[in-house]
Structure formats: C-alpha cells, structure tokens
Design goal:
Blueprint lengths: L4 E6 L2 E7 H11 L4 E4 L6 H9 L3 E4 L3 H15 L3 E5 L3 H16 L3 E7 L2 H6 L9 H5 L5 E4 L6 H13 L5 E7 H4 L2 E3 H7 L14 H12 L4 E5 L1 H5 L3 H11 L3 E3 L19 H7 L2 E5 L21 E6 L13 E4 L2 H12 L8 H22 L8 H14 L4 E5 L2 H9 L8 E2 L10 H12 L3 E6 H5 L5 H6 L4 E7 L28 H5 L4 E5 L2 H14 L3 E6 L24
Parallel strand pairs: 3-4, 3-5, 5-6, 6-8, 7-8, 10-11, 10-12, 12-13, 13-14, 15-16, 15-17, 17-18, 18-20, 19-20
Antiparallel strand pairs: 1-2, 2-9
Length: 576
C-alpha cells in the first residue's frame, strides 16, 4: 500500500493514511493492470505520474480517441480490460468514441475519466469542464459506474472489470470526480476495501441437447460451411477450434480479424472462394461471428437462392435470430462449446460430400491463380495489387508480426490479398468500419505483444491518427507504417467543376508523409515501386526502428467507397 501521509490522532500515536490517488493505483495493481493508455491533464495528471512511479506503464498519447483505440485492442489481445484514462468533459468525449467502438466490437475496455463535482454538475453552476459524464456514457457502453467515496474505489473497479469481461465483453465507463482523489482514509481500512476480482469471466457450458442439435444439423448438410468471427479469435481457444474444424472436414471462411486462427493457406480455407461458399452452402455454422452487415445480414443475393440452415455459437442468447432464424443455437463460451462439439462427434464423424469440398477447392485455386499476376507487377506509380503483393510476402516471411490495416481500398484489398498464419495477428477497423484506429492499435499491439508491427494505412485513414507517430517515436516502438498515398479519399483524381477549391475527396498532390516522422527522429522513406517498398519494409522490420513509408499509389487507382460502394447513396438526379 502506498501511503500519502501520516496523522497524529493522540499524543504519541500516529495513523497511516492513504488517499484516492493511491487507492485507485493499488486497486489496479491488485487486479493485474500493468499498462494504462492516457492523455494527461486536469484532474488526472498526478494519477498518471503516481501510477508510473508505482510500476505501471503509462503510455501518453496526443489524442484521447487514439488512447482509447489502443486500450480497446489491448483488451482484445489480452482478454483483460484495456485501461484508458482521460480528463473530464472534452477529453471524456474524445475517449467515448473508442469506448462505444469497444462495446460494438466486444472488446473489454474501461474508460476512466476525471469529472466535475456532482453538486455543481447537478445544479449546472458552470464548473470547469462541467458535464454529466455518467449519463452521457450509459447508452454507449455495457455498464457505467461513478465512485464518490474513497472506500468504494475497490468495489467500483471490481464491478467495472467484471462487467467488461464477463459474458459478451464490452466497454465500461468509470467516473471518478476530482474531489475523490484527495479524499483521505485509514491506510489499513483502505487496503481492506480493495477487491481482487476472482474468475471474472467464468466458463459458460453449453447444454448437451443444444450440442446434439447443432451436430445433427451439421451432419445433415450436403454443402456445409463454418464461418469464424473475431469472437473466435478473442476466445483464445485456438487448439480447440482448429481441432473441431479439422475433424469436421468442413470448409471454413474466416472474417478479417479471425484470419490466422487456422492459416489462410490451410486446405479447408475458403477465403479465396468467399462468394461461392456463401451463395451455395446449405448449412452454415457461425463461431464467434454475427450475421450483421459484414455478412449481409444472412440474406439477399450474397447468400444465393438455396434455403439455408444456420447454427450459431455465441455467448449471448439474445444474438440468436437477430436477422434470420437460427436452426441450432448453441449458447456458451466458445472454448467450451467447441470442445463439447468435438467430444460429441465421436471417432467416426462423416466427411462432408467430396463434390462440395472439391468444388470449393477448385474455385479457391482458380481465384488464387487469377490474382497471382496482379500481385507480381512492378508498376511505378504503384497500383494497390502490386504494393500489397510485396507486403503479402513480408507477412509470409514474418508470421509473428502484427498487421494493422485500415482505409477503404487499402483495407478491402489487403483483407483478401494478405494471408495470415497465426491467430490475433490481423487487427483492423472492426464492426463499425471506423477510420482512425491505426496508430492506436499499432502502439498497443507493439506494447502488449512485444512483436514488430506493420500498419498498412490509406492516406485518408492515416490522417485521423497520424500525429501519434510522435508517440511511436517517443516510446521507440518497432512499428513500420506504410501510407498508401493516392492523393485522396478513394481516388485523387476528382475535380471540382464549380469553383477553384479542391474536390471534396482530394488531398495535397504529391504529399510526403515520410517527412512527418523524420521530424520526430524516426525513419522516413519514399517508395515509388513495389521493389522499393519491399526493401524499405524489410529494412524497417529488421531494424525495429519507428519508420513511415510513403507508398506512392497511382491517384486513379481505387474505387468509390472501396468494396462497399453499395452503402454509399448516389443521386439519381442529373444536373440540368
């Protein structure tokens, strides 16, 4: 216990005291928190300093939203709540986007924000950064708590941890008013008030009848498909999932952040035949994946005309039937569910029909062969395929590296081109498709795993968090950022026909993003061909030095809204 002061109660006697600052830090340490992502300021500046002095690593960012994205992905990587610490009001609001993003994507995260005093906020008397933060946070996260008394800090943090990781993980808000930090209490009583959370995410065992029903439906399939979502990656039940998939013999389709649970080069992987398996399958098993917009809600032309039956493995029963009827819901944690399925399959589980697996394999091989020449071109300026082709090779040669990816065309094409070989090595924009996650995720990935990070960024996406390259340099992190620079959003060739201002989607022509990192002591490289890009990335990954590569992409390359142009409404009216 860190003690803030001593106080004489009577002649010859002294009582050890502690305060809110130290109780927060001790509660965090008691529960294994070793890293905080933050932006310092009133009223949490000293909390960060004291946490650092107490042995917690405190990573200071340039913007709270990026610190929040770092905390969120730290939660995904570790299965422990990532901690983001912000100042009140505007700082809290900046962090709130990341908190909502964490909740939507089922990442365990706790946003801890200082706040103004309740008595002033409630009377709206105009305090410094006055805002009812708890009320604002509640609709956007899994749970929200406020601690008013020092003796409740332990319980408050315990509740936040348990809420963040139990059941379906998500974001939690913890409100700490400024006055709380200076509250003083007996140190011994303070130590007793702290809570070490035991088994915060207990296993949830599926019902045997549900396991049997799921297997009966799967066994009846003539064209079965397994879809692995990022929930399966989060579960860290890698051996169990691989064992089940291989024993079933069923083709599997990994969603983007589930890539690498089994290698994308695995003989059962149908990633390169996505359209075919979605349209033609008759039974689909979802493991940690949701039938949201990323899977066209389980209906429509994406899924073809043949009737389908769905099996869904999810920890939350409310997810079932969210878009289509689920024939076999299997509720429980993924590790327990998959282990139960494998055990119940026995030793004589029938292989899927050979005509189906053969057709999937043939389509996959055909699509891979069609793509290969595109990935081998050495055009200058580069197109997306030529640039991604060499980065594909970099990841193949460095399967332990973490890939962070965001953008429009940069994201959509990289998802299909770059094979992953190990779980939780691909991090990207998640369910919302949020731009700006790049630098926060890259920083957290480097810190939480100790592995080198390759961040492949569209030039527009990079703009949301680009100042964090100073953070990367300040902490000397092994992060190589590649900015795909085509002078604009989607393309850099749009023209404003009505005036002299640039078109709304166009950036500065010939911008040199590589010069930015040089200002902070990092390595900047301008690459104009795939060969130059490959050399620069390999040098960066070998050196471990903070590096930014400006990859010059043909401004005409790319398409409107990447591969989700159908979501971008177009005017049907013509100008007269």
């Amino acid at each position: 216990m860190l003690n803030s002061a001593t106080k004489s109660e009577a002649p010859g006697t002294e009582q050890e005291l502690t305060d809110g600052f130290h109780l927060v830090i001790d509660a965090l340490k008691l529960n294994g928190v070793d890293t905080i992502y933050n932006v310092p300021g009133i009223p949490i500046t000293d909390l960060g300093r004291m946490a650092q002095a107490a042995g917690i690593r405190v990573i200071s960012f340039r913007h709270e939203q990026n610190a929040g994205y770092a905390a969120a992905i730290a939660g995904f990587l570790t299965k422990k709540p990532g901690i983001c610490l912000t100042v009140s009001a505007p700082g809290f609001l900046n962090g709130l986007t990341a908190l909502a993003h964490a909740t939507t994507n089922c990442y365990p995260m706790i946003l801890i924000s200082g706040s103004s005093e309740r008595e002033i906020v409630d009377l709206q008397q105009g305090d410094y950064e006055e805002m009812d933060q708890l009320a604002i946070a509640k609709p956007l996260c899994k749970a929200a708590y406020r601690v008013l008394h020092a003796q409740d800090i332990g319980i408050g943090l315990a509740r936040a941890i348990r809420a963040a990781v139990s059941g379906r993980p998500g974001g939690v808000y913890l409100d700490l008013p400024a006055k709380l930090f200076a509250q003083v209490m007996n140190a011994e009583a303070g130590a007793r008030s702290l809570v070490k959370v035991i088994d915060p995410a207990p296993a949830q065992i599926p019902a045997p009848s549900a396991v049997k029903r799921a297997l009966d439906v799967l066994k009846s399939a003539k064209r079965p498909l397994i879809i692995l979502g990022k929930g399966a990656a989060y579960a860290q039940a890698d051996d169990e999932i691989r064992g089940f998939v291989e024993k079933s013999g069923v083709p599997f389709l990994p969603m983007s952040m589930a890539k690498g649970l089994l290698p994308d080069t695995h003989p059962q992987c149908a990633g390169a035949a996505r359209s075919t398996v979605l349209k033609e399958s008759d039974v689909v098993m979802l493991i940690g994946a949701r039938l949201n917009w990323l899977l066209s809600h389980g209906k429509g032309k994406t899924w073809g005309e043949a009737p389908k039956q769905f099996i869904q493995v999810d920890i939350d029963p409310r997810e079932m039937d969210s878009n289509v009827e689920i024939a076999a819901p299997l509720v429980g944690d993924i590790g327990s569910c998959v282990a139960a399925l494998t055990a119940a399959m026995g030793d004589n589980w029938p292989a899927p029909p050979a005509d189906w697996t053969g057709a999937v394999r043939a389509k996959r091989d055909e699509n891979v062969a069609k793509m290969a020449p595109k990935l081998m071109n050495n055009k200058s300026p580069m197109d997306y395929h030529g640039a991604l082709g060499v980065l594909r090779t970099v990841i193949k040669e460095r399967p332990d590296a973490i890939l962070v990816n965001e953008g429009a065309n940069t994201l959509d094409l990289a998802r299909g081109v770059i094979d992953m070989y190990k779980p939780r090595k691909r991090l990207d924009v998640g369910t919302w498709g949020v731009m700006g996650i790049g630098m926060g995720q890259a920083i957290a990935a480097a810190i939480e795993t100790g592995k080198p990070v390759l961040a492949i960024e569209g030039d527009s996406a990079f703009g949301f968090s680009g100042m964090e390259i100073e953070t990367i340099c300040r902490y000397n992190l092994p992060v190589c950022v590649v900015v795909f620079n085509n002078d604009g959003i989607y393309r850099g060739t749009d023209v404003n026909a009505a005036g002299t201002d640039p078109a709304t989607t166009v950036f500065v022509k010939g911008a040199r993003y590589d010069k930015m990192i040089e200002a902070f002591g990092g390595v900047g490289v301008n690459a104009t061909s795939p060969d130059e890009l490959k050399r620069a990335v390999n040098e960066a990954m070998n050196s471990g030095k903070p590096t930014l590569i400006n990859a010059v992409i043909d401004p005409a390359a790319g398409s409107e809204s990447g591969r989700i142009g159908n979501l971008n409404p177009q005017s049907v009216l013509k100008k007269k």
